[in-house]
Structure formats: structure tokens, C-alpha cells
Design goal:
Length: 159
């Protein structure tokens, strides 16, 4: 068995998704200290017998594009990414940091979420919590990041 923990840090919370052997087991959102606790809670379960990998999205600014939101938020997000990398490193867990364009390219968020809805099995989709839109996007991004890292094919949009 192999475990993958995908993290999508946000300004107020972090979305996370835990996969076992390529199948979404659970996902949600927590404050960042709770995500650190999630990493610590998953490690004992996986460390002795099963490998764990963590993948974390890192924020990025793009030249020539107007910034969305407060620039200081990007600095805070960068600190959170560093925090999660530090937790993984301290526990000896391999981790990967990905940029948004590495896992979704230029695909708009709504399109990515529609593709994800057709990619997950009904059982996996039932594991996605019912949340307000402002919280759900980080969770769905974490699930999508995990699917991309696991090379699960994101279902294309119908013509």
C-alpha cells in the first residue's frame, strides 16, 4: 500500500486529500496547525509498513498579470508551504512542491472542478465533504493535485 497526502494551502485554511493505492480515502480542510496534526496522525499509520509521499501546492505570481488579492497573502502562503515542507522533512517523509501550472496548466478552476467530478468514482465523490464554496475549492484542488500526481486521467469536458 502507498499513501499520498496532497495539500492545497489557502489564506485561511488548507485543503487536504489522502489517497491509498491511488484511491481517494478522505479529504477535507483544516486550519494549518490541524493539517500539521493530520500529517503526524497519518505518519504512524503508514511509516512502519507503507510509504507516504506528500505533495504541496506552492503559490506563484506571474509577470504581466495583475495580482489577485493581497500580495501579502502570497507571502503568508509561502510561509505555510515552508512549514509543511519542514514538518515532512523533520519526519523523514518525501515531499514534492508543485506550482499550479504544473498540475493544471492554464485550465480555469471551474473547468478543473468539472473534470474532477467526472474523474472520481461515486464512492470517492461521496467522501468529499459538503462545504460552502469558499471552503470547498481548496479541498477540490487538493484532490485534483493528488489525481494529477497519481497520473489519474482527468476526464475531459464533453463536446
Amino acid at each position: 500500500m502507498r499513501y499520498l497526502l496532497a495539500l492545497d494551502p489557502g489564506v485561511n485554511l488548507t485543503g487536504w486529500a489522502l489517497f491509498e493505492d491511488g484511491v481517494l480515502q478522505e479529504c477535507g480542510h483544516d486550519g494549518n496547525l490541524q493539517v500539521s496534526a493530520k500529517i503526524h496522525s497519518v505518519l504512524p499509520m503508514t511509516r512502519a509498513k507503507y510509504p507516504l509521499q506528500i505533495v504541496i501546492e506552492r503559490p506563484r505570481t506571474y509577470k504581466g498579470q495583475s495580482a489577485k488579492g493581497d500580495t501579502m497573502d502570497l507571502l503568508d502562503l509561502s510561509c505555510e508551504v515552508g512549514f509543511f515542507c519542514g514538518v515532512a522533512h523533520a519526519r523523514g517523509v518525501p515531499f514534492t512542491v508543485v506550482l499550479p501550472q504544473e498540475w493544471k496548466g492554464q485550465t480555469p478552476k471551474k473547468v478543473t472542478q468539472n473534470q474532477l467530478a467526472r474523474t472520481l468514482t461515486p464512492d470517492e465523490w461521496d467522501r468529499v465533504p459538503k462545504l460552502a464554496k469558499k471552503y470547498l475549492h481548496n479541498v477540490l484542488d487538493a484532490v485534483a493535485i493528488g489525481c494529477r500526481v497519481l497520473e489519474r486521467r482527468m476526464a475531459p469536458l464533453p463536446d
